[in-house]
Amino acid sequence: MSKQKKKQKLDPYVSRFLQLKCASDVLGATHPIGNHVQKEISESMAIIKRLKGIILKKPMEYTLYDMCAGNALTSVLAAHLLPVKMSIAIDIRKRKRSWENVKRFTYAQEVDIHEINPEDLDNPSIIIGVHACRSLAEQIVSLYLESDAEHLILMPCCAGNVKDREIPSIFTKQIGKHAAWAWQLARQSGGHIYEDTRCLSARNLVIVASKTLKKSGGGTENRLIKQLSKEHRKRAKVLAKLRHTTT
Ligand SMILES: C[S@@+](CC[C@H](N)C(=O)[O-])C[C@H]1O[C@@H](n2cnc3c(N)ncnc32)[C@H](O)[C@@H]1O
Fold first, then answer.
1. 110 CA distance to ligand 1 centroid (A)?
2. pLDDT digits (tens, 9 = 90+) for 25-43
3. Global pTM?
4. Where are the alpha helices (DSSP H) in the chain?
């Protein structure tokens, strides 16, 4: 293949995105995305690939929460492409874009994900997090576990603190900190890790966790986690009341 032809060859996710009827509307609503548009598109397409099967099973029922959404490319694309009831992008920063042009979509700006009450999330819902860094990824996992969200799709970014009891450092050195971090998050959420080699980012691991899928083998474990987190919530409420009455 000549050098010029090589240059022209698009990544499969990017070319598939560009073939979508909604591509220009999605880019129009989220513009400006930044300097790495193709990478961002490929990351969003990797998440959409995982979301599609879940959402098509319950058309127009799911609320999708895109935590630490940034330019909200994934949640805007989901609102165009998939039958979601509502797609909600959440970010601590303000982002002025043409959000009003996207149907079944809202951008909740200046919202810290640590301030979200898990009980406030709609039911049924799906939580996604695309390249949320360090402890933000852990907070997204907590929101998934402590809420009634049925599914979590998380693409981690910069690694946080990998606990030695999760993966001994000797293994972390072998598989790399990013994979070890993804492993820890997958264990915490009761999910599975997939590598998406079509994604243009080197951080191309996707964690998929579900409280409803039985075939994952983690079904019983997931239900247990959900039950435990409900009990944890109850205990927290009782403690808060006690603190209130003793002061
Ligand atoms: C690395 S960017 C990822 C953005 C987007 N998901 C993407 O893939 O392009 C991380 C985003 O998290 C947001 N963020 C940081 N801390 C946050 C917090 N406590 N609550 C909500 N969003 C936060 C930042 O404003 C930023 O947009």
1. 11
2. 999 999 999 889 999 999 9
3. 0.86
4. 3-8, 12-19, 23-30, 37-57, 73-81, 134-146, 169-175, 177-189, 219-246
* C-beta separation of 75 from 82 below 8 A: no
Task: Answer whether 214's CB lies under 8 Å from 225's CB.
Answer: no
- Chain segment 108-141, per-residue pLDDT in tens: 999 999 999 999 999 999 999 999 999 999 999 9
Cα(183) to centroid of ligand 1, in Å? 21
Q: What is the domain partition of the chain in residue ranges? A: 12-246
Q: Does 68 sit in the ligand 1 pocket, CB within 6 Å?
A: yes
Provide the CATH topology of domain 12-246: Rossmann fold (3.40.50)
Any atom of ligand 1 within 6 Å of the Cβ of 40:
yes
According to the model, what pLDDT value does residue 218 have? Answer: 47
